[in-house]
Amino acid sequence: MATNGVSAALALKARAVSLCAVSLLFNRYTLFLVGVYAYSMVILMLGGLGGVLAFTEMEPLMLFRYGETTGVMLKKEYWELTLLFYLYCYFNMILRPSRWQAWLAALPLFYAYLGQDIYFLMYSNVFRFSELAEVPELLKVLSLPYIGLLVLFVVLPLGYFLWSINYRKFWLVLVGGLPLVLLIGAAEWYPEQYTATYRKVGRPIEYWSDAVSAENNGRFMMLLYREAERQMARAKTAVYRDRGEYERQAQQLAGWVAANGNKRNVHLVVLESFLDPTLFKNASYTKDPFHPSFKKLFGNRMGFSLSPVVGGKTAQAEFEVLCGVPAFEELAGVEFNSFTGASAYCLPGALQAAGYRTMASNAYNPSFFNAPNAYQGMGFAKMYFPREYVNGSDSYLIKGDTSKEMGYMYDGTIFSQNLEFIAPLLQEADGPPLFNYLLTIYGHFPHELNEEKRPKVLKMLSKFKDQHLERAANQIFYRSQAVAEYVNRLLELDEKSLIILVSDHTPPGQYGRKSFQKLGYLNNKEDSLHMNRIMIIEEGKVKKFTTIHHYDIPAMVMNSITDGAYCKEHTCGFAQNKLLDDRMSRHEDYMRLMAHASE
């Protein structure tokens, strides 16, 4: 009997232990974490952002940045997970007990994540606080059925959540929410301290991709970090912010351009790493790297433009080319990341105000460099990205076959699609003039070639070997052919147009700057790594100027479309055939522009 009693007691203890283990493993809090994981995996499969604890497919650039050989890596968003868990516990504490309490506590977090993910799936861009300003406008254009669905599935459930809070626990509601208030307050009112601290404790913040940064750190963490950056930019530029006067000056310039302009169409192309391989003093080739059609068109009439960057940060080159001021990197590093969509009146904005149609066509992912907000703030009325990146939304671009070339859209593909799209616009007899801007991506490091489509045509002969730059030289043969075909077709459609093609920056090379030094790029003279090829065609004639800066290009455009009147009223080094050392004298213009771009 005693033995049976002991056995029964042990069985009861074992059962109690098992029940305790089950309660520890299968309670609302562990199930919440499992739900977060499941949600992340579902969104990822739908093409959204990788989330907390989820395996995510890496972009080609990430593979090279982290030196990975596989296509996935585990995201460890520790701070995001801590915040989510804290908020879930807090909501459970302040809600009145009910059978729906565990689900109701997760509801605001689910909607907060879902809203950001829907935004990303629709626009391929990471949501920022500045986008909240567009919500009233969105509500105005929603049809009644959509408003009804919004009320039914969002407003009413959130209203029920607020009604279910036990407001009698006033101090618990107040004290429990204090950490969240302090976190948001730190980002808003102490942004420098917030960003400095987060850079020490968080995972890397990638300047080239909001999406990658959000996957590294979490949606909420990046939302707060980018808001802190915006507040820093606003504080640094506060003395330069005068929207009324800024708008007045922009409209004054637009009116002057409209009155003095010749309505010439403008085609501006920024070419990814468009390297001139013949500039290596210590290398030769088994074949001319430039295609015969390109040589026939440009010959020795290619010029040079000084880029602000070397080997990367394409958005910095874009910023200078489109905004006409140096990229000082004084706010959020890469200037594109400071744009909120507020009107900054860069070159496209000034031209749009003067009556031009302004459009940007970007061959890559809109989540890179905050491009949609930057393009909108610069003044592009229309912007297009490959449909594969924007879930088939309104875009004429299709990436095409990018197999074995790291997903990079070939220059000839974007050129041919652009020509087909703009041809009807150029043929409109009474249509407004066109500002047609393109950014290419093919030729990006490490210059992979699909040799089934574009076989190697040359070898680099040099004591110093660099396989990447040899591949780049082979790519240039095909890319220069695509450029020549594009320009010749543009001239057939509109011989009077202004066409400018410029390389964004020199590529990094297999061994970085060492490759260029060993190969003697431009004989290693001062600033040689910043010197990039520029090709200019005005009214059917190829023109060559002395070396310019990327930020001189907007003035060059303005001067062309006003038949030289612009440079009679403004200082233009290229018009005097000399390179001006005027970087610092443009600092105030830079600060004024960024003050309004970051509003």
Written overview of the protein:
The protein has 599 residues and is an alpha/beta fold. It has 2 domains: 40-236, no CATH class; 264-597, Alkaline Phosphatase, subunit A (3-Layer(aba) Sandwich), CATH 3.40.720.10. It contains 23 helices and 13 strands. It has helices at residues 2-25, 28-45, 60-66, 78-94, 101-123, 135-141, 144-164, 170-176, 178-189, 191-201, 210-217, 219-236, 243-260, 292-298, 314-323, 347-353, 371-378, 411-426, 467-493, 513-519, 553-561, 566-569, 587-597, and strands spanning 55-57, 72-74, 266-271, 284-285, 303-306, 357-362, 382-384, 434-439, 460-461, 498-503, 531-538, 541-543, 548-549. The strands form 3 sheets. Strands 3, 5, 6, 7, 8, 10, 11, 12 and 13 form a 9-stranded mixed beta sheet that branches. It has a two-stranded antiparallel sheet with strand order 1-2. Strand 6, helix 17 and strand 7 form a beta-alpha-beta unit. Helix 9 (178-189) packs across helix 10.
